[in-house]
């Protein structure tokens, strides 16, 4: 799976369909990111969210399977160190724990089984007091949202080789693996949700 072919239009395509809401959803909880945090961003995309992180981050580890996305992100001027990995998160040596993991429209790319594996990786690489920030689509049962999801999955299977054919129940998978949702903000008639998750043994 790679988004190399649509890197130049990826953000514009998202804006055309969802307007500014899809971008606001990805940074709405960034006020919870403490200074000097070590941050993991799997599926970093074009990297535009880097400009919205605290300037005194300790380190950002950016992982993406698209080389074109990485090259676009590298061109951004940020004040903190960023380690770029052209890889899948399952094949990346993350070298330590993180206080923050940001998964923006990432879980929706994978099948239920793949999300299970990724969630376990996130769990093992997040500190006990760390938080997971998730922005993604969710199934609401609203007819036009079901149609739009079907169209999006067909499109990305064709252009990016995305393995998933439907939206995984990523929130339930997180909960089954010991995560707790502590805050939620929704957009686009609840079609997009931004949530803060912590571990069940969260130590603030």
Quick structural summary:
The protein is 31% helix and 25% strand.
Characterization of the model:
31% of the residues lie in helices and 25% in strands. It has a single domain, classed as Vaccinia Virus protein VP39 (Rossmann fold), CATH 3.40.50. The relative contact order is 0.17. The model has no long low-confidence stretch (mean pLDDT 92). A seven-stranded mixed β-sheet has the order 3-2-1-4-5-7-6, sandwiched between helices. It is globular. It is built from six helices and seven strands; from the N terminus they run ααββαββαβααββ. It starts with 9 loop residues before the first helix and ends in a 5-residue tail after the last strand. It has 204 residues and is an alpha/beta fold.
Any key phrases for this structure?
single chain, 204 residues, alpha/beta, Rossmann fold
Which CATH class is shown? Alpha Beta
- SS class: alpha/beta
CATH architect. name: 3-Layer(aba) Sandwich
SS summary, helix count = 6
**Major sheet: arrangement of strands:** 3-2-1-4-5-7-6
- Biggest β-sheet, characterized? 7 strands, mixed
Mean pLDDT across all amino acids: 92
User: How many distinct beta strands?
Assistant: 7
What is the chain-wise order of helices and strands?
Answer: HHEEHEEHEHHEE
Specify the helix fraction band: 25-40%
Question: What does the radius of gyration come to?
Answer: 16 Å
Shape: globular
Distance between the termini: 37 Å
Strand coverage percent:
25-35%
Low-pLDDT parts are: none
